[in-house]
Specification:
Blueprint (H helix, E strand, L loop, with lengths): L80 E2 L31 E3 L2 E3 L7 H11 L32 E4 L7 E5 H10 L8 H4 L6 H14 L3 E6 L7 H24 L3 H9 L10 H10 L4 E3 L4 H9 L8 E3 L12 E3 L4 H6 L1 E6 H7 L6 H10 L24 H9 L5 H7 L1 H7 L3 H13 L2 E3 L5 E3 L10 H4 L5 H8 L5 H8 L2 E4 L9 H10 L1 H12 L11 E5 L7 E3 L7 H6 L6 H11 L6 H6 L6 H4 L16 H15 L11 H12 L1 H6 L6 H13 L21 H14 L17 H30 L13 H4 L9 H13 L6 H15 L6 H19 L8 H15 L3
Parallel strand pairs: 5-6, 5-8, 6-7, 13-14
Antiparallel strand pairs: 1-2, 2-3, 4-10, 9-10, 11-12, 14-15
């Protein structure tokens, strides 16, 4: 496959067949396909990562059950059997705890269905599907559970589950003594998810605070120490671009999690803190993918290699696991690995008890197939894995219906038995339950087919860096429907080196940009305006930067916006309208190291920082010296060093955001931001910017420009808003608290203990949308620069260039809550200066017992507000008089409370 071609894999996009044509048929007399026999690990072969070029092992399997239909309905009583299902381990949340009687006395809680060669037999005495649906609705009412009546929470019949399903297999053990010097390929997503869901790294209030986990980095470091102590090495593999269906599943999972988080907030507001904490912790609202940067940072600090897959980390691990020349000695991760051709064993991510026992546990695929009696039909096993749901395919809806699967939650065995009743055909099974699919997910069969084909033709990267499509020779002409559109290999290279993230690439691969649910689930007018209007030009600019550097056809493919709160809301990114002005602005920057060093000395700041980028342009002659006048058919080149890349990317970004004009001089907003950065400079140096003051200053002005950082829209209906004093006092307090939400509170490496605020969590959602959009724009600038050959194309990560750019970290609301609580609940105006200082210790003991140095953090927050106020004061007519007065009042309010 060649990079740079705007097409599907193997056929131009315009010429591809319709996905649902009859090219998906069942091969006749498909022979038995057996899983690979278990390959014993040889620790002596795994002292280090293998080097050199290793030829890949081709995968071959017959595609079963795609597009097949039930045939020849048999007659006679001997073929009739009542549908019974083996009950096994549970893995999904129950539909409801309190079960009412069924809607119709004819329908028992376990309603048997007659199956005949894939067809249900229902006569005039059998309950109709309307009766079944009525019973189901009563068994799983949508609005009776606490929290389920939140308008955007998904409380429908089919709860979404992850791919870590129960698989009916006894775990095998693997003592560490047998793994000395072994290299284990680890699915990073599964590893992180287990860490944040289990002790000791579990932080139950993370879904209520937003941001990154407080102690996750500490626990990752401890975990890696244990790998080293036991003389094993992990090779972490991260998911790359989203496979077809994965973003939709992420949206559904997050919507389902809202049911639990809303219940937790109701428990918290009703004074049930312990139950609220447990419910927050069990909500599943935090995505492991959002925490990749923490794990990657630790791995880089320890010089441990990691790999970012083109698409699925599971597919990549399966490829590495089956190389003829041994590259890794085992694979660790989720049960989704069982979908692929592997060397039989899947190791579970370790728990704290595993480290104490010095033993890993896992599953043997061949044994599992034997226990499930499908050893002769591995494709049936793979189909069952898809039926119960994966990270890219929702579970088969009938599995959730208690009238069909009598004992919920269903298991993998239930899915296998469904297939057995339909000649092992997924299509026939769908035909049998077409009425249920019509009601709950009429497109499920199409989704299944795409998922099946995406596994069969998964994309991996070979050991010499070539992106490879499995079973290339049999790739269908409509492959873009299940693989997405092909992007240049160079763009994947930048993804693999963590120079850019997957969000930008995904929008071109699938021509969709998903806005995922927030943690708070609040769709305020200001949030809706932000994501559906204000941020769209930035996203269009990001897309234009990349599309203009790859195949021309890409520029004419619009991108559809998908919003979690309104599936009918349609917005389109028409990124071609942002050119040529976007490239004209960015291509005018090409400052080299000698100039950077001169300005670093003059400003006392470091190149590659926001402070340097803005303060350097206040020098009299420097702006004009930075303007690059390109020849008629040329462009700037030679931006090679890390500092050159950092600095020019930031300048281009600030130019696109309107802080710098075409003459490379600061605009009014740029001057205001420079004023703020200069004012907080001493605090940045004093604390090594542990509070993220630089990024906070920039985001403060972004929020000001989007009309979000103010005292309006206070939402008193959301718990955690200021309650005391006059209306002006509440307005002043919330503005100071919102500003403090941009800063990091220093906390011990323990889960957060302190007050919560849904009010500030909803504001955090606004901050996060702005931060992620700015991060995408930064990455778009970097990708555009490199794709256009303006710098030497890096073969590595340029010493962590991607991680060194701003806006990769998500700051929680804890300092904002602490500042608001201090001003609104604790502070007394009559205290003397001495009493104010002394009483801070009482506040810490009462509200933030595990904070590191709240007195200093509070002082930094107050100084930060002063600095932002100083910048706002210079804006003149850029800000209206009413808002300026609000800032004046808040500044005076704070001055009395120092």
């Amino acid at each position: 496959m060649e990079g740079g071609t705007y097409s599907g894999y193997g056929a131009p996009y315009e010429e591809q067949d319709n996905y649902d044509q009859d090219n998906y048929h069942r091969p006749s007399d498909v022979g038995a396909w057996y899983a690979a026999q278990g390959v014993q690990m040889d620790p002596t072969r795994a002292s280090s990562l293998r080097q050199g070029h290793f030829s890949s092992q081709e995968y071959h399997s017959s595609l079963d059950s795609i597009g097949e239909y039930a045939t020849n309905l048999a007659e006679g009583p001997d073929t009739l059997r009542r549908y019974h299902l083996m009950r096994t381990h549970s893995h999904a949340a129950p539909l409801t705890r309190n079960r009412d009687p069924p809607a119709d006395e004819r329908i028992p809680l376990a309603n048997p269905v007659f199956i005949l060669r894939g067809y249900r037999l229902i006569d005039e005495n059998s309950p109709s599907m309307d009766d079944v649906f009525a019973a189901v609705d009563r068994l799983a009412p949508s609005n009776t559970q606490i929290g389920s009546n939140w308008p955007y929470a998904n409380s429908k019949l089919c709860p979404v589950q992850d791919a870590d399903f129960s698989v009916n297999s006894d775990a095998y053990s693997m003592p560490f003594s047998e793994l000395k010097d072994a290299v284990i390929g680890v699915e990073a997503t599964s590893y992180l998810q287990h860490m944040i869901d289990d002790q000791p790294a579990h932080e139950p209030l993370l879904a209520a605070l937003g941001g990154d986990p407080i102690a996750l980095k500490h626990h990752i470091e401890n975990d890696l120490d244990k790998w080293s102590e036991n003389k094993m090495r992990p090779l972490f593999v991260f998911d790359g671009q989203s496979v077809v269906g994965k973003d939709e599943m992420a949206l559904k999972n997050a919507s389902a999690a809202l049911v639990k988080t809303q219940k937790a907030w109701e428990l918290y507001s009703n004074n049930h803190p312990e139950e609220a904490v447990k419910t927050f912790g069990a909500s599943g609202a935090v995505r492991a993918q959002d925490l990749y940067h923490i794990l990657q940072e630790v791995l880089a600090e320890r010089s441990l290699n990691f790999l970012i897959a083109p698409f699925s980390a599971c597919a990549q691990l399966a490829y590495l696991d089956t190389l003829d020349e041994q590259f890794i000695d085992g694979i660790m991760g989720s049960k989704e690995l069982l979908l692929y051709d592997i060397n039989d064993a899947v190791i579970h991510p370790p728990t704290s008890s595993n480290w104490e026992e010095k033993c890993f546990y896992g599953i043997i695929k061949s044994e599992l197939l034997t226990k499930l009696n499908v050893a002769g039909h591995p494709e049936m096993f793979h189909d069952a894995l898809l039926l119960v749901g994966t990270s890219f395919l929702p579970p088969f809806p009938p599995l959730h219906v208690e009238g069909i699967i009598s004992s919920q939650p269903y298991t993998l065995t239930d899915a296998i038995n469904l297939l057995r009743t339909s000649n092992r055909s997924v299509t026939a099974t769908c035909s049998t339950f077409s009425d249920i699919l019509d009601k709950y997910d009429r497109n499920w069969l199409t989704k299944y087919r795409k998922a099946k084909m995406s596994v069969k033709h998964c994309c991996t990267v070979t050991t010499d860096g070539v992106v490879h499509i499995r079973d290339w020779d049999n790739l269908s002409s409509d492959n873009s429907e299940y693989l997405g559109l092909q992007m240049p290999a160079e763009l994947y290279h930048y993804l693999s080196k963590a120079l850019v993230g997957p969000r930008i690439i995904n929008c071109f691969v699938h021509l969709k940009w998903h806005i995922l649910p927030t943690l708070d689930g609040v769709v305020s007018d200001e949030y809706k305006k932000l994501v559906t209007q204000s941020l769209l030009p930035l996203k269009e600019t990001t897309a234009a930067l990349v599309s203009s550097r790859i195949a021309r056809a890409t520029q004419f493919k619009d991108i559809e916006m998908i919003f979690w709160f309104d599936e009918n809301l349609k917005k389109t990114l028409v990124h071609r309208n942002m050119q040529p002005q976007t490239n004209q602005q960015t291509d005018s920057w090409g400052v080299k190291d000698p100039q950077l060093k001169t300005q670093a000395t003059a400003t006392g700041t470091s190149p590659g920082t926001l402070s340097f980028a803005l303060l350097a342009l206040q020098s009299k002659d420097f702006p004009s010296a930075t303007v690059y006048a390109a020849p008629a058919k040329g462009h700037v080149t030679g931006i090679n060093s890390k500092t050159e890349l950092q600095s020019n990317v930031l300048w281009r970004f600030l130019h696109l955001r309107g802080y710098i004009n075409d003459q490379h001089q600061l605009t009014s907003w740029g001057k205001a931001l420079a004023t703020t950065l200069k004012a907080i400079g001493p605090s940045i140096k004093a604390y090594n910017d542990v509070h993220h003051l630089e990024e906070a200053a920039f985001l403060a002005f972004e929020l000001l420009r989007f009309d979000n950082l103010n005292s309006r829209n206070r939402h008193p209906e959301l718990i955690g808003a200021p309650l005391r004093g006059s209306d002006d006092d509440k307005a002043n307090c919330i503005l100071i608290g919102r500003t403090s939400c941009l800063l990091k509170l220093r906390h011990q490496n323990l889960g957060y203990t302190g007050p919560l605020s849904k009010n500030f969590l909803s504001f955090h959602s606004i901050i996060k949308e702005v931060r992620e959009t700015d991060r995408d724009l930064l990455e778009g600038v970097l990708a555009s620069l490199l794709l256009n050959g303006q710098g030497e194309r890096p073969r590595d990560d340029c010493d962590g260039l991607g991680r060194s750019l701003p806006f990769s970290k998500d700051i929680d609301t804890s300092l904002g809550i602490a500042v608001k609580t201090y001003l609104d609940d604790f502070f007394k105006a009559e205290w003397t200066p001495e009493e104010r200082e002394a009483n801070k210790a009482e506040y810490i003991k009462k509200y933030l017992p595990h904070s590191v140095n709240f007195s200093e953090d509070l002082d930094v927050a107050f100084k930060f507000f002063d600095a932002v106020y100083e910048g706002v004061s210079t804006l003149g007519k850029e800000i209206n008089e009413a808002d300026k007065k609000v800032w004046d009042n808040a500044h005076a309010y704070l001055a009395k409370r120092r």
